[in-house]
Structure formats: C-alpha cells, structure tokens
Amino acid sequence: MLEWIVGTALLVCFVAGSAIFILLRLNRRLQHEVAERKHMEADLRDSEAYIRSIFRVAPTGIGVVVDRVIQEVNPRLCEMVGYSKEELTGENSIVLYPSQAEFDYVGQEKYRQIAEGGSGIVETRFVKKDGSIVHVLLASTPIDVDDHSKGVTFTVLDISERKKAEEKLLESNKRLMSILDAIPADIYVSDMETYEIFYMNDHMKTSFGNDYIGRLCWEVFRNADGPCDHCTNPVLLDDSQPAEIRVWEGENPKTGKTYLNHDQAMLWIDDRYVHVQIAIDITDMKKADKAIRASLQEKETLLQEIHHRVKNNMAVIGSLLNLQSSNTDDPVIKSALQDSQNRVYAMAAVHESLYGSESLASVAIKPYLAKISNVLFQAYSVTSNRVRLNIESDEIELAAEMASPLGLVFNELITNSLKYAFPDDGEGEISISLKKQKQGLEITVADDGVGIPENLDWKRASSLGIQLVCKLVEDQLEGTIGLEEGPGTSFVINLPNMG
C-alpha cells in the first residue's frame, strides 16, 4: 500500500514537472512572438509614416477610393481641385468630373486596363471647385490585385500646360496644312529609303485623283516598277546632311503635264531624312512660251526679210546714182552724186548689219563703222598706205533707230577728211574714238590734215555735209558737236542718251 502511494506521488511529480516545462517553453515562445509582433508593428508604423510622408509631400495628386468613393486624398490633390480634404473624403468621385459621361468612361476604361494589366492610365478632365477645368493624367492600381473591393489607389498629374502646348501645336499644324493645301503646286513627302509617301497636299491629291499616303512614290506617281532613273534621292544628302535644293524640269507620264520640280532633303519628326518635292505645273507656260517663240521666230524672219529688202532697194538706188554719175561729165554733179551714193550706203549698212546679226534690235558700232569707212576709202580711191584709219571703240551696241543717223554723221565727217584734209595726194591719219562716259557717249572724229581755215564759221558754212551733221547730231540724236582747236580737224560729239 505504501509503495503504491509512493509510486503515485512520484508519477504526479513527474507529470507536474513536465507540465511546468511545457508551460515554460510555451511562455518563452509567446514572449518571442510578442516581441516579433511588436517589432513588426514598429516596422509597420515606420513604413506607414514613411508612406504618409510621401503621401503628404508628393508633387502629384494621390488618393484612395473604394467603390469610387473617396477615402483619402493628399494635399497636392486638394490644391489641384480647390477642395479641402474634409470636403472630398466620403464623397463619390463623380464630384471631380465635369459630366456623367466622362465619369462613366474613366471608370470603364480604368477597370478594363486594370483587369488586363494590373493598372490603368486614362487622360481626362477634372472640374475644380470654382468650376474651371483642369486636364489630368489619372493612373490607378488596386490595393489588392485579387480583391478590388479593398479599394484603388490613384495618382493625378496636372497636364493642363501640356494640353495648351499641344493645342497650340495642333492649331499651328492646322494653319501650316491650310497653307500647304492652298499653295497652287503639288507637294509631297516620302521616305528616302523606302519611298513610302508620308504626306500629300490637297492640290496634289486633286492632280493625281487620289490620296496615295502609305504608297510608293514611283509606283503611284510614275506608274514605274522601281525607283525612277532620274530620282534625286542620291544627291539630296551630302555627308548625311541636307544638300542644296535640286531644281529640274520634266513631264509626268501619269498626268501628261510638265512640272518644274524642287527637291530637298529634310529632317522629319521621327529624326529620319525625307524627300520633299514641290512641283509647279508649267504646262500652260511651256505652251505659251512655245507659241511666243514661234511668233517671235516668225517676226524675226519677217524683220530680217524687211532689212534685206531695204538693203537691196538702197543698193538699187546707189546703182542708179552711179549710173547717173557715169552719164555726166560735170565734176560738180559727179561729186554730188558720189556723195549721195555714199549716204545711201551709210543708211543701207545699218540694214545690212541687222540682217546678218543675231540681234534685230541693235548694231555693234565698231564693225558697222568699219563697213562705212571701207566703202568711203574705195569710193575716193584712197589707200591705207596714204591715209591710215585708226578706230578705237568700247564694246557698244546701238539701237537700230540711232545707228542710222549716226552712220550718216560718220559718213559726212570721214568724207570731208578724205576730200579736203590731205590735198595733192598728201599722207596722214584719220582717228575715230568712241568711249562710254557717265553722261553718255563721247565720239571724236579727227584728222591730222590741213584743217579748217581760221576765218571760216564752220557751223554756218554752205556745205551740205556739215549742215547735215549738225542737224543729225543736235535734232535727231539730241547731242552736241564742237570743233577742237589745234592742228588738223577734230570734231567732238557728245550724245547723252546713248552709250
């Protein structure tokens, strides 16, 4: 009995000791878990404080909604919309939208994107407390991706300035497109490597009867099977930089019209170089130019024929004067007829020069003067060994209506020198100078012969030749003539309207 009691007591002690040991272990575990929980709670509080500090100072609007009812907002969001935190908390977020339609659209689009990718970004508008509108970029993500009922965190970025800039850019682009569409020329832009068309103005769409944006330029504009042989793409870039504008003329096989094309390389909006062409339809201008050239050629031919016939008629008159001269023995009459014949040739020389010239409106003065001089030297049987002729002249072109009277002036002055300056077969020189001056044309006709008698008033002389010279210079050519003093004879003529 005693043994049973002792055994039972020992068993009870063992059980009690085991229980105490288990309790001690559980207590230590509990203390450890409590310490860990306290540490986790401390970390959680620190993390929450950290998040709330970001929440408070973030330059972007931040908020939390549950079933689209506002639960939390940060100060920046309040500043953006003009409401206080107390005015927004607990309100349905429709208060921030200008219309039910926009509120519904944002909700549908946001949750559609969240379902597909876990977050959503929507560009929309918020209405501020004062009724003004602010453009925003709204980004949303669920607090628990598996349970959207726990709420959605959203951020709001004010993009009003960006929208204004975009609107200005769009408006500027519209004006530019309006200008390009209003230009009466075909304008298009194509990729320099693929030849894909990026842009056509309205004028070009009308010219080719379609909008070919996205097609290949050589295919739709030229009906070709590949890049054109005359394509300017290879020369539009120089060391990877735009080269000079290439201007060329050609007929388009599709429209059948002739264009003046201006090609240039330009940096496109995606930083690649493109081919820009401005093509001006010059078909009518070419036709008009062709008609004008044909008409001009016809008139030139007619004018040449007129000059030829006038020259021939004057040659006939000269021949008649020569025939008349051969039928008389009176030296005075012979001299008068010879002078008249020379004057006729001086006038005919203008038409002869014009007939053989590329220009039918003007005469080169030096060869014209040489023709007159040669005829006079032959007419008076004066050789260059006895009387030398020296002509110095600038490059001067005279209008036909001025060349004829000036030719008569030269004819009379050279004739006087040949007839009177070198009597008894005397020797000497005749010098002619033509110089361009600021005030016009200066002409000097001089000889080193016997000169004019000192007591002779040459302007009042009865000589027909001198009277004719004065009349032509002063009345017809609107110039002045004077006689310089010195050995020989030297006439100086100034023509202000020539040269």
As a whole number of angstroms, the C-alpha radius of gyration is 54 Å
- What's the average pLDDT? 81
Question: For this entry, what is the oligomeric state of its chains?
Answer: single chain
**What is the fold-level CATH name, i.e. the topology of the largest domain?**
Heat Shock Protein 90
CATH superfamily of the largest domain: Histidine kinase-like ATPase, C-terminal domain
| SS field, number of helical segments | 12
The termini sit apart by 165 Å
Q: Quick one: biggest sheet?
A: 5 strands, antiparallel
Count of the domains: 4
Secondary structure: number of strands: 19
Q: How much helix, percentage-wise, in residues? A: 40-55%
CATH class of the largest domain: Alpha Beta
Low-confidence stretches: none
User: What would CATH call the architecture of the largest domain?
Assistant: 2-Layer Sandwich
Shape: rod-shaped
Structural class: alpha+beta
Widest beta sheet: strand line-up: 2-1-5-4-3
Q: How large is the share of residues in beta strands?
A: 15-25%
Structure description:
- This protein is of the alpha+beta class.
- It folds into 4 domains: about 110 residues, Beta-Lactamase (2-Layer Sandwich); about 100 residues, Beta-Lactamase, CATH 3.30.450.20; about 80 residues; about 140 residues, Histidine kinase-like ATPase, C-terminal domain (Heat Shock Protein 90, 2-Layer Sandwich).
- About 50% of the residues lie in helices and about 25% in strands.
- It is built from 12 helices and 19 strands.
- The strands form 5 sheets. A 5-stranded antiparallel β-sheet has the order 2-1-5-4-3.
- Strand 11 and strand 12 form a beta hairpin.
- The protein is rod-shaped and about 175 Å long.
- It starts with a helix and ends with a strand.
